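Changelog-adjacent note: as of this version, every example in the card shows the full chain rather than a window. The one below runs 125 residues end to end.
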Amino acid sequence: MKEADIILTPLPQANGVLKNRPALLLREFPAFGDFLTCGISAQTHQAVPGFDEIISCNDQDFQASGLLAASVIRLGFLAVLPRQRILGAIGTIEPTRHARLLRTLSRYLVSNLGKTSSAAMTDNE
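Full-length structure tokens:
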């Protein structure tokens, strides 16, 4: 398995029950082979505009994705998974989509970094 693969793995649902769900391998962490993943859902109406990404049957990489229906790649549903929790790969997305998702997540994570650091310094003074 490699980054940009869509995999099946047991993920917790809203009610706490584990269910085999598709997820995207965003990044492999060094040393132990764990992956940062994000969940994928067919509930496209739950997509957060400008953050999540919808992959639909008209997209060039839809067929290669292994998904059965239009789906939302949910950057807000992150998990770190050890390789042994991954049941297998069902497909992949294009490198350009994968890079775009990583950029979106990275920008979000650092968007208020300057403000947060300043506030933390003020709180500690």
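Structural remarks: The radius of gyration is 16 Å.
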